[in-house]
Amino acid sequence: MNTIECRIEQIVNLTPYVYKVLLAPSQPVEFKPGQYLNLVMAEDDKRAFSIASAPHQPLIELQIGAFGEDSYAMQVIDKLKNSDTIAIEAPMGNAYLREESDRPLLLMAGGTGFSYIKSMFEHLAEQASDRSLVVYWGLRTLDACYELEQTKAIVESLPNARFVPVIEQAEASWQGKSGLVHQAVMSDITSLEAYDIYLAGRFDMVGIVRTDFVEHGANIDHMYADAFAFI
Fold first, then answer.
1. How far apart are CA 120 and CA 198, in angstroms?
2. Is 67 within a domain?
3. Which residues of 56-68 are buried (b: 16+ CB within 10 A; e: fewer)?
4. What number of other Cβ atoms are within 10 A of residue 154's Cβ?
5. Same structural domain for residues 111 and 88?
6. Cα radius of gyration (the chain)
């Protein structure tokens, strides 16, 4: 793990509550798809965020969901907006993509957990991977969606891949899948035994998903999530 100074290149809204942050590191940052970094707010205040960009990309992308004026995440956004640079600690995390495996891949995220799996599928696209891949992204409402068409294009540029967005509280106009994202996975896939599974989302969600997926055939030794270290 290294401490690296980064120039803050861009902060834009993806939705009213999700911010895309682009950082230009002062030196190359080596990391594996699915790892995270710490933003150094102060010496004793370091806050973890998944790296949304892939290792080959020159800028580091973060996707930060910030709700409430003085929330944990909004404090970070306010600091970034009022700074030219920020220090990061990277890389961190053991739930990175196991590239030596040839098992089918299931990437599943809820909300801004999307940033975790985005790094992986963008890396796989850059590598022109022919592994079987399915990407599920669960969102509470249609208003929470962003980059759907872009994601579909990247994922489905691969020969054996598909992208499935799932809206929990879907409106009548929504033509895709609705309900809980992990239940959609279990409805679509008869058994998860063959899959390498990567998960991101709220810790309580990941805990439920782990239990349900194991009951649906998943091998716990082939399931990966940073949340597993805390639940």
1. 10
2. yes
3. eeeebbbbbbbee
4. 19
5. no
6. 17
Is residue 132 helix, strand or coil? coil
Looking at the structure, tell me whether residues 131 and 37 fall in a common domain: no
Q: Which of 8, 121, 134, 18 is nearest to 65 (CA)?
A: 18
Within a domain: residue 99? no
The tens place of each residue's pLDDT in the chain, 231 residues long, gives 789 999 999 999 999 999 999 999 999 999 999 999 999 999 999 999 999 999 999 999 999 999 877 688 999 999 999 999 999 999 999 999 999 999 999 999 999 999 999 999 999 999 999 999 999 999 999 999 999 999 999 999 999 999 999 999 988 889 899 999 999 999 999 999 999 999 998 888 899 999 999 999 999 999 999 988 777
Work out how many domains the chain is built from and give that number. Answer: 2
Q: Which domain holds residue 165?
A: 105-229
40/121 same-domain check: no
Asked if residue 71 and residue 179 are part of one domain, the reply reads no
110 lies in the same domain as 31: no
